[in-house]
Amino acid sequence: MEEQYLQTDKGNIFYRKGGQGEAVLLLHGNGEDSTIFENQYSFLLDSFTVFAMDTRGHGQSDLFVEILTFQRIAEDIVSLLEKHNLHQVHIIGYSDGGNIGLYIAAHYPEKVRSLITLGANFEVDGLIESALQEIMLEKETILQISNKNEKIRRLCIINLMVDELSLTSKDLRAIKAPVLVLAGENDLIKKSQTKKIADHISKAVYKFIPGGGHDFFITDPTSFEEASKEFYKEMGELK
């Protein structure tokens, strides 16, 4: 995977690119970076041109804003597609990356060929109670950080899961692309939330990975590979 930077009006966005074929964009979760998909690169590179982005404020990408929103990240993604003359892209998003994928599919439907979400939620209370409490405790800790720039960066990131979780039922109903909604059997996302996402999207199906947690694609990469290949085969993208 070749390392590159996207220049924007608000700093630089880091991404990796490799392979050939239709484009797949990988979006990591909150507070992470694109290396979280290292176990997925190899099988995706066999069939697709793979883009793995460090979203704004994460990994090697600049923040350059004091409030980070889904819309700002979506604009970065659209700029990346324009840079590489891509009219459409398949998106695979984990956790927060899945939420952003849902946002893009709703607000930029012409850009999204398909979407696979892994442990996504569109409502804050779609998280199990213990996970939500942990986020609130972490936010309280961040508020005590003395370094102003680090505090802003950390608050921008964590707020994507709470104050800036900009998704509604109306957004989901606007999604026209095929969507595979995946979650672990023992995920941090309520089963009812996973089902609710799929129910709101006309071309969505959902699947729970047996025994899987929130990070099932890391602990059991084969389960994700099999589910995604089946999805792409049904779309006619893989033989």
Walkthrough of the structure:
The chain has a single domain (2-235), classed as 3-Layer(aba) Sandwich (Rossmann fold), CATH 3.40.50. 40% of the residues lie in helices and 21% in strands. The protein is built from nine helices and eight strands. It has an eight-stranded mixed β-sheet with strand order 1-2-4-3-5-6-7-8, sandwiched between helices. The radius of gyration is 17 Å and the shape is globular.
Oligomerization state of this entry?
single chain
Helix content: 25-40%
The count of domains is: 1
Which fold name fills CATH's third level, the topology?
A: Rossmann fold
Q: Nutshell version of this structure?
A:
With 239 residues, the chain is an alpha/beta fold.
Question: What secondary-structure arrangement, pairings included, does this model have?
Answer:
Layout: E1 2-8, E2 11-19, E3 23-27, H1 38-45, E4 49-53, H2 70-83, E5 89-94, H3 96-107, E6 112-118, H4 129-143, H5 148-159, H6 169-173, E7 179-184, H7 191-200, E8 204-209, H8 216-219, H9 221-235
Parallel strand pairs: 3-4, 3-5, 5-6, 6-7, 7-8
Antiparallel strand pairs: 1-2, 2-4
Tag the structure with descriptive keywords.
239 residues, 8-stranded mixed β-sheet, 8 strands, 9 helices, alpha/beta, globular, 40% helix, Rossmann fold
